[in-house]
Amino acid sequence: MRIRSTRLRHWLPFCLCALLGGQALAAASPATSPVTSESSMLDINRYQLLYSATGDDRFLERMGSAGKRFEASLQGRQDADALRALWSDYQQGSKKLLADLSAHKINQQSEMAQSLKLSETFDAYLQAHPQTAAPELADNLRTRALLTARLANLRKVDNSRADAEEQKIKALDASIQQQIAALAKADAALSSDLANRWHYLQISQSNGKLLLYPFNAQIESMLGKLQNH
C-alpha cells in the first residue's frame, strides 16, 4: 500500500477507524458478487476519485477489480463494443494521469481536476442511458459513495460545484434512510445491521472531515450484505 507522504499526516490519527473499515470491506467481498455494467461504471468512477482525493493505492486496486467486473458484465450486451471503447479510453486517461503524477508534472489540485474530467467519460453515458426503474437501496448507496468521492475532489477544485453536490447528498441521504427503515418489514435483522453501519459511516470523521477509507468500507459492507440477501 502507498499513501502519498504529503497526505500521510491526515491518516495517522485514524488507524483504528481504518482497521475497522478494512475488516468490514474484507467481510463484504463484493468483488465476487455479480453487478451490472452501470453499477461497475459507478464503482470505477468512485475508486478513481477516491484515489485522487487520498493517494491510497488500495483504491487503485479496487478500481482494477471493478474494471474486471465491468468487462465481464459486457457479455451479451448490444452496446458492448461501445462500452469497451469507453473503458479503453478511460484506462488510457487513468494511466496518463498516474504517469504525470509520478513524474511530478501535475500538482494535487490538477490531479483532482483531471480525475473529475476523466470520470465524465462514464457520467455522460449513464446520463444518456438513465435507468427506468426506481433506484433500489444498493443503487442509492453506490450513488452516495460516488457523490462523496466527487465532493472530496470538488472541495479542492470548485467550491460552488461542491456546494451543489452536498445538497444532492443531503437529499439522497433521506431516501436511503427511508429505504433502510422499510427493510424492517421483510428483514428486521438486516435493517438494523444496515442502520448501524449507515450511522457509523456518517460519523467516521475527524475535525469535521470525513474519513474516506472507513466510509467506503462501510458502503462496500452494506452492498455485500444486500447482495447476499
TrEMBL record:
Residues making up the signal peptide according to the UniProt record: 1-26
Lineage of the organism: Bacteria, Pseudomonadati, Pseudomonadota, Gammaproteobacteria, Pseudomonadales
Keywords: Signal
Organism of origin: Pseudomonas panipatensis
Lineage: superkingdom: Bacteria
Keyword flag Signal: yes
Name of the protein this chain belongs to: Uncharacterized protein
